[in-house]
Amino acid sequence: MIKEYLKSLKQSANLSWQDISRASGLPEATIRKIFSGETADPRFETVVRLVSAMGGSLGKINDIDKKENIDKGEDSHINSLIAVKEVYEERIKDVREANAEQVASLKRDKKILIIATVTLSAILLAVLLLDLLLGNHGWITY
Question: In whole angstroms, what is the distance from residue 50 CA to residue 67 CA?
Fold first, then answer.
């Protein structure tokens, strides 16, 4: 949603990458990555700088104007910033939860690999000991 809104702002303002870079103070490469989708989750401050540089409204991102907690009687710009911040905090919470699930999955996988390694090592050691005990039969003969 953010990427589409930024693209529409760029088209309506008829700005070049250099114009946006100068107005926002962001490197042109960063701006291109955000617009191309390479940066899937740009920082809140970066979005604010881009929207401000292109003359847009933060309240239009993700239909934030529809959120109940925005009081239209107060400064709408500050309320829009607060609403965008809340949206980003929700996204950060979701990313942290997903990361916690991934870490738990990796820990389970690590335990399974350790158990498999110990089991296979024990089997190999048992086979070698049995081979040594049999003396003239098997792989190791003396």
Answer: 22
Q: Residues 78, 28, 32, 55: what is their CA dihedral angle, to the nearest 10 degrees?
A: 30
Q: How far apart are CA 142 and CA 138, in angstroms?
A: 10
- E strands of the chain, at which residues? none
For 69-83, what is each residue's pLDDT tens digit? 444 545 666 777 787
Handedness of CA 43, 49, 53, 59 (dihedral sign): positive
- Whether the pTM exceeds 0.70: the reply is no
- Please check whether residue 88 is in contact with residue 44, taking contact to mean a CB–CB distance below 8 angstroms: yes
Rounded to whole angstroms, the Cα distance separating 43 from 85 reads: 10
Residue 77's nearest CA partner among 60, 54, 62, 92 is 60
Structural domains for the chain:
2-102 (1.10.260)
Can you tell me the mean pLDDT for 73-102?
80
DSSP count for the chain of H helices, then E strands: 5, 0
